[in-house]
Amino acid sequence: MASKSPGDKLAADLKKILSDYAEGITEDIDDVIRKAAAKGRSTLKNTSPKSSGGPSFGKKHYADQWAVRQETARMSTEAVIYNRAPTYRLAHLLEHGYVTRSGKRIQGKEHIKPVEEKIIREVTQGIRKAVNS
User: For residues 48 and 83, what is the distance between their CA atoms, to the nearest angstrom?
Assistant: First the structure.
């Protein structure tokens, strides 16, 4: 059997160090993404338009239906903030406005885009912080 050369040991040690570093950064990034998604969901619940009357879709309000779906794969994390059924169809109409049957234009209330931009900034800053520390 051939003995390992000092170069092989150095390569193995370097590989282990880089693997540990990548694992630590991945955990930090996952944490940043989870926190940003939860914060975005609560912000959308607070800033989304609310109906003036009772619940418009059975017992469910549009603003209360925001949820987060998180998926973690080997080296990636994804968090999607979405509006659950039955009110998910309203998101585009409330954000951009719509035309009624009588031809009257209802202006949209931009409530999703500002939260999206804020989350993107927070995640970007969090990732930079995780990589630099």
Answer: 11
